[in-house]
Amino acid sequence: MSSLFLIESPLQLLNAYEADNYFKSKNNKYIIRLSNIKINDNQILKLIEFLSIKEKSFIIEINSKHKKLRDFLKLLSLKIYIFFVQKKFDKVFVGNIESGLFSFLTKNINRKKKILLDDGTKSLVVQKKFTDTYNIDFFSFYDLKPYKNQTIYKNNFTKLKETLLCNSLENQTLLLGAKLSEISIIEEGYYIDLIKKISNYFKNEILVYIPHRGENRDKLEKIQSEVKNIKIQYIDYPVELYGLNENINIKTVISFYSTALYTMMKIYHCESISVKFNYNKSEHKKEIDEVYNYYKKYMKVINL
Fold this sequence. Notes:
This protein is of the alpha/beta class. The chain contains 11 helices and 13 strands.
């Protein structure tokens, strides 16, 4: 089987790499979109090197915002390219079906030829929207219940786990940051208060705080100065590779409703703790509820 992968985020790329190995595909092609968001693009580029897939990758830069004429020309060229080359591939893997870019690029591709990749917790929401009469196959690390005529292929991170042979005696507790205030789900002051409550709850431990790539640097500096048992550690690769790159054992992972709570638990067999907060005024309340309801089945969910 030969496969075409359409990717625009580091997590999508990790999942594509696992799918590549799961299906033992040959003559594959990764079409990887860079968005001119520096921190996201840098993680993708580092991951391409780490996974040794540069020869399989076609990298194209299309701005996510403030598109110029050259961006639209690139987009049109890519659309024409995919229209012709997709005939050579048995399957087309899509990193985010709700992406305007990917919807445009794959509009004329037969639905039965597509397989979705996880793009964070939105997979849970996307699966809910499907029905027995309309659905797309999924390659997912979540335990999704398939609809009629839908196939769920299980991503167990098998290939990645082969490299995670850590001999370190150092155990760490990770606190994964979130861009909750940056995308206006809650106020920044409330977010910092939540971090202080988490710090107090785990007051006998040093928490290694790994920021989300979308977090504001001023907010992070406030956290570092105001919270004593937190050590902020910046990384320029997906957090799923942290244990491998830093050669440490991950004991516990703490966050809110981050996808990484689930992926880290699956990869490192560590404890994951999800922290609930007041998001009742958020327009995304229904989607956040879906994630917390799912997480309750697999990890400890606490209210502070």
